[in-house]
Amino acid sequence: MSRLLLSLPLLALAACNPSGTSAKTTGGANDPQAELLAGAPLAPGKWEVTASLTGPPGGAPARTEPPQTSTRCLELKDTIAPTPELFLGSGRACKRDVWNVAGGNINGVLICPGMDDIREVPTRISGRYDRESYNVQSEMSVFGMTIRQTVDAKRIGDCN
Question: How many CB atoms within 10 Å of residue 43?
């Protein structure tokens, strides 16, 4: 159980873009990339992401792990149709049961393999976003204990 608690904050960091590049637009009136950029829910660029973890309440003592902050570069392709992995990170092969990112709201349910890779663990996700920031909460129950993760992110500039 302690391995699970310690590894969950790292999941939010796992969706980093190793290339460190961002999409650039040419800005013309008929530029398809500019049209995509205008319609993307999130703005491409360098983002600061802070993840914190609380759990489990109930039978075990509730504990809060120290928040972990990282930066990542989001390309245009990452921001057009944001995935659960972008918002939360993921080190596991989760399936989307429900996923909706629209109108400033994020709602979903992922089905992820448990630590034993036998049972499936539903993870509920909800949050809010705008082009320059997002806040997402996730909650999963493992062995009767609830684990909550919060991810706050803000765009801090262009990618280097």
Answer: 17
